[in-house]
Amino acid sequence: MNAVCYVLLILAAGVSLISPYLVPVSLLLINLLTLLIYGADKLAARKSWRRIPETTLLLFGLLGGWAGALAGQQLFRHKTQKQPFRTRFMLSIAANIAAVLLALWLGYGR
Question: Membrane-crossing residues (predicted)?
Answer without folding.
Answer: 27-45, 57-76, 88-108
